[in-house]
Design brief:
Radius of gyration: 12 Å
CATH topology: Thrombin, subunit H
Strand content: over 45%
Structural class: mainly beta
CATH architecture: Beta Barrel
Largest sheet: 6 strands, antiparallel, barrel
Strand order of the largest sheet: 1-2-3-6-5-4
Number of helices: 1
Distance between the termini: 30 Å
Number of domains: 1
């Protein structure tokens, strides 16, 4: 993996992703930046380059692409970075140590 462009913020977000018209899969998102996130899946079906949409709690769908995979951890890049106010809302609600 290359150096990060942005700081990742620790979060805990029960999320869902969907690939194409397939069924939704439940995953846990553990860190977030305006341009992407890291999630954990209990199964290994996502591969680099896969396009999908993800819902981060009540936010989304967000179009994304899988950029890396290490075991059951997956890194997503959002096709359009999150607006600063949306990013702040997610972090304030789901950030570790926050009220959400």
């Amino acid at each position: 993996m290359s150096a990060r462009r942005e700081e990742r913020i620790p979060v805990e977000i029960l999320s869902r992703y969907r690939s194409g018209t397939g069924r939704a899969h439940i995953v846990q998102v553990y860190d977030l930046s305006p341009s992407g996130c890291r999630l954990h899946q209990n199964f290994s079906v996502l591969e680099s380059g896969k396009l999908l949409t993800i819902r981060l709690g009540d936010v989304g769908p967000i179009e994304s692409v899988v950029r890396w995979k290490e075991g059951l951890n997956v890194g997503l890049e959002f096709l359009v970075p999150l607006h600063p106010s949306v990013f702040d809302h997610i972090v304030s609600r789901y950030g570790r140590g926050g009220s959400g």
